[in-house]
Amino acid sequence: MSIVRFNAVRESLSRENFVINEKGSRSKKFGNHVFNEERMLQFLTKDALATVKDAIFSGAKIDRKIADQVAEGIKSWAITMGATHYTHWFQPLTGTTAEKHDAFFDVLSDGRALEKFGGGQLVQQEPDASSFPSGGIRNTFEARGYTAWDPTSAAFIYDKTLCIPTIFVSYTGEALDNKAPLLRALSAVDEAATAVAKYFDKNVTKVNATLGWEQEYFVIDKSLAYSRPDIVLTGRTLVGHHAAKGQQLDDHYFGVIPSRVLNFMKELEVECIKLGIPVKTRHNEVAPNQFELAPVFEEANLAVDHNLLLMDVMDKIADKHNLKVLFHEKPFAHINGSGKHNNWSLATDTGTNLLSPGSTPMKNLQFLTFFINTIKAVDTYEELLRSSIASASNDHRLGANEAPPAIFSIFIGTQLSSVLDELEGVSKGKLSPEEKTELKLNVVGKIPEILLDNTDRNRTSPFAFTGNKFEMRGVGSKTNCSKPMTVLNTIVAKQLIDFKKEVDELIDDKNLKKDEAVFNILREYIKTSKRIRFDGDGYSKEWEKEAKKRKLSNNKTTPEALKVLTSKQSLDLFKSMNVMSEVEVSARQEIELESYIMHVQIEGRVFNELVYSHIVPAALAYQNKLLKTVLGLKEIYGNNYKSMAAAQLTILEQIAEHINEIKTKTDTMTQARRDANNLKDLSKKAFAYCDSVKPFFDEIRYHSDKLEQLIENELWPLTKYRELLFTK
Ligand code: ADP
Ligand code: MG
């Protein structure tokens, strides 16, 4: 009998509910653990406050003297909050966050002790960077890495540690993290969008990209999770026959949240609120034991930090409730996987959402400008945007006939489509007074009204306009949002710069009025970016064919998707927008490829353990049990035993066949892995893992799942889907 599985099931059923009784209003707790403006007013000198605000708004540098003052203020606050340590909190290219804690506590040469924290420690730290992926950057430059304070994301206290959000760069200035390129992209889009927004409102001096992510995840009992070697080591189940019931009854979606999970959510939310993460929505998702959490949107850099912090906090709080959160994009076969929709827009410092239609024709022209430029940007760089969400785990969703396809397209709905159709008919050059009036009254003027009824939504679209924002849906549940946000904001920045140049040329050289020039350029963009617009079923075979005709990329796997990163178009883009140098882009491509290889390699190794140490021994044990029965029958009934043991003999043969198959497949897969490991070229190695190793996984799984069905329940060692997904 499988001790681990049954102990885990027993434990999971005897859990006591950890009841959380929340006291006090959330608005009073919001941001209490954050060094926000309120705390700054209280703890910073006037000069320090002014400098930090300037740094946040315009990126101005903070000199050492002021940094000392800021550090003093932050320290005083942190100590009143009971913090004992501080850390630079950063996002190395591993995809998660990293931290090294140092105590405030220090001993002076005369033996006295005190709490110390100066400007130096606030602004810069040198974690030993040698064990973080650098994609060759460090070898090339013999450089160490250092972290540097990002004043645009406020310091916070978590678990008695003051966390200072930082970027992580090499001494020669190359970004070794995901935050530095994001900050550069956000600054590029700020500059480009501000210049264009000034056409419509001279008072705009800053544009922030906004991000509202929606985090999907699974929660299962901790003991059940740890009973499965595949979940522990890969985050997903590599084998497992589906339970008789899955999500077909739609009885989980938006249903009553199970009370154990609800208590976990309550505690999690209170923790988030204290950390300034504005969590707002919680609900059951489609698959059993799948849930979603969404906050109010924020400035993109802050939103990215908050999502990363959230994933950390979720892990910790879940553990307290004896639960385990699965962030993997596809932890279970046969039911939905998890994503992280990225809702994105641009907001001015005058309080306007640039993707929200307004009350006047001029405001709507502004809306159309940003709306159409975004469409054009995605059309030009669709393949690059796809590459930003590529990973071994997300491959199980994209291109696998589940929540958005790997083909990028944009859904804008029928009403906005007809607005664009009308704009396509705008005359070339100067517009007649009649045409202008017609545009104002009947096309541009009508947008807010039509959007109000524009309720049609297309869940299969990877990039959908949803009323006042675009929603990028292919982002994986585990993905660091800074990757897609870096690409999206960079391509929109580039597009807006090109747009402004073209409009200004028409104004200066062709003597067109500003609105005429804008209409003229938008008309051309509508014409040239048509192929990216698609309102139909993104999962259908017909769309795949049609997309091919339109020359849209359809990169179903990570090694394919990553190729475009180092294309001339991509390198030129990142360089011209000052987001990443060629060295930085190549390093990221290398790191992503390596990560892909390692993930598939680990899964391959886990298969070996599962097959040889768990599945085959269980099958043999049951075979032996059956053999004993058959031999017993033969002993007692002589030649008559055959008809009496017919069922047993059939099962015995089936088991034997699956054992043989699973062994052969596993051994061939192992050899394929060895062959792949011998390849020196990273891209070739990644393709070998993708095309020659990974396909065996499904085949091995097939035989394992057949064995699971044949073998006596008591003997099956791996916790079953029914137990993992339906224990509440
Ligand atoms: P759903 O997509 O689940 O139907 P909504 O469309 O209401 O839900 O909103 C989804 C998310 O969009 C929310 O998390 C919200 O914060 C975010 N959001 C709303 N407006 C914006 C915006 N202007 N910029 C970025 N995100 C936004
Ligand atoms: Mg959504």
TrEMBL record:
Annotated GS catalytic domain residues: 178-615
GO MF term set: glutamine synthetase activity
SUPFAM superfamilies: Glutamine synthetase/guanido kinase
Residue ranges of every copy of the GS beta-grasp domain listed in the record: 84-173
Biological processes annotated in GO: glutamine biosynthetic process
Domain of life, source organism: Bacteria
InterPro entries (alphabetical): Gln-synt_C, Gln_synt_N, Gln_synth/guanido_kin_cat_dom, Gln_synth_cat_dom, Gln_synth_gly_rich_site, GS_Type-3, GSIII_N
Protein family: Belongs to the glutamine synthetase family.
The protein, known as: Glutamine synthetase catalytic region
Native organism taxonomy: Bacteria, Pseudomonadati, Bacteroidota, Flavobacteriia, Flavobacteriales
